[in-house]
């Protein structure tokens, strides 16, 4: 119990510090801001864009929203990148629609956004579910992806720890449910959103070694040493990808927040140069 409390305090401290930095940046930055929505498969998908320059598409995790990237947006925009932040369908300001959720469907949503913004090719950074979506995007729309960073992603459900696989069988309760109602933006729709998300988690993605080998984009796989995705699974992903490399970082599933400085350095270096010294 003490360990859980300690981890929670570290996480919330990291959130508060990084949110404060983000808010100061929003108040003082002169970066251009644009927002819009696209229609795909019976849902309106919302997005926000910051800055100008070469495009970086940031794909957030499941049961979250685009603001998950508050630790990364200022760094990328100030480095001269155009940052595109979709809300995954059913999350944030995007519609859920009537279709069952799949990573390929969400990848198609992202392609629609790139089309709307006349972005032929982008770097893609995905965290958790966003990393899974990035893999499908690079697999089925390879011409749209230049380089890619996937953080805490899995290419099949067996890559998740047994504890997490068990948690994916039922709805959230108590404080966790209250938090997700707010953080996802789903409110009273959380029950349906969570049910669809967890059905997807139990069966998808289902990529094989041959699928990963077909992903040509240089890809950095980042995983925490105490992540909900096993290090062995992430190592296998990096090995099977045509141009994959692996970086293991201290921490759990939320390293873009708890280890923001290190993660941001890795993202900037890899997208800028295509290599990461010390990765394997």
Spatial order of the strands forming the largest sheet: 1-2-4-3-5-6-7-8
Largest sheet: 8 strands, mixed
Mean of residue pLDDT values: 93
Low-pLDDT stretches: 1-7, 274-280
Helix/strand-derived category reads alpha/beta
In CATH terms, what is the fold-level topology?
Answer: Rossmann fold
Strand % is 15-25%
Rg, Cα atoms, Å? 17 Å
The helix-strand sequence is HEEEHEHEHEHHHHEHEHH
Q: Total number of β-strand segments?
A: 8
CATH superfamily: Alpha/Beta hydrolase fold, catalytic domain
Roughly how many Å apart are the termini?
A: 35 Å
- Work out the helix count: 11
Please identify the top-level CATH class.
Alpha Beta
Fraction in helix: 40-55%
CATH architecture: 3-Layer(aba) Sandwich
Keywords for this entry:
single chain, 280 residues, alpha/beta, Rossmann fold, eight-stranded mixed sheet, 11 helices, globular, disordered N terminus, disordered C terminus
List the SSEs and their pairings.
Elements: H1 2-28, E1 33-40, E2 43-50, E3 55-59, H2 73-78, E4 82-86, H3 103-116, E5 122-127, H4 129-140, E6 145-151, H5 162-167, H6 174-183, H7 190-203, H8 209-213, E7 219-224, H9 231-240, E8 244-249, H10 255-258, H11 260-273
Parallel strand pairs: 3-4, 3-5, 5-6, 6-7, 7-8
Antiparallel strand pairs: 1-2, 2-4
Summarize the structure.
The chain is an alpha/beta fold and 280 residues long.
What does this structure look like?
- This protein has 280 residues and is α/β, with parallel strands linked by helices.
- The chain contains 11 helices and 8 strands.
């Amino acid at each position: 119990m003490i360990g859980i409390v300690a981890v929670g305090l570290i996480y919330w401290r990291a959130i508060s510090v990084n949110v404060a930095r983000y808010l100061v940046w929003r108040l003082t930055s002169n970066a251009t801001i644009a927002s819009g929505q696209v229609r795909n498969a019976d849902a309106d998908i919302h997005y926000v864009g910051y800055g100008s320059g070469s495009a970086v598409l940031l794909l957030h995790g499941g049961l979250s929203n685009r603001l998950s990237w508050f630790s990364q947006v200022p760094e990328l925009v100030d480095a001269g990148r155009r940052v595109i932040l979709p809300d995954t369908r059913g999350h944030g300001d995007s519609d859920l629609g009537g279709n069952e959720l799949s990573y390929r469907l969400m990848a198609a949503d992202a392609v629609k956004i790139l089309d709307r913004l006349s972005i032929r090719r982008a770097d893609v950074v995905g965290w958790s579910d966003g990393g899974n979506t990035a893999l499908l995007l690079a697999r089925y729309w390879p011409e749209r992806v230049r380089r890619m960073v996937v953080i805490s992603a899995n290419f099949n459900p067996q890559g998740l720890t047994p504890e997490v696989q068990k948690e994916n069988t039922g709805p959230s309760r108590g404080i966790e449910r209250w938090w997700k109602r707010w953080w996802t933006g789903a409110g009273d729709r959380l029950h349906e959103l969570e049910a669809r998300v967890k059905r997807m988690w139990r069966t998808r993605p289902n990529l094989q070694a041959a699928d990963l080998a077909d992903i040509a984009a240089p890809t950095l796989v980042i995983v925490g040493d105490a992540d909900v995705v096993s290090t062995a699974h992430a190592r296998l992903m990096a090995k099977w990808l045509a141009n994959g490399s692996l970086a293991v970082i201290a921490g759990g599933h939320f390293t873009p927040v708890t280890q923001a400085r290190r993660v941001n350095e890795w993202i900037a270096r890899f997208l800028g140069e295509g290599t990461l010294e010390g990765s394997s």
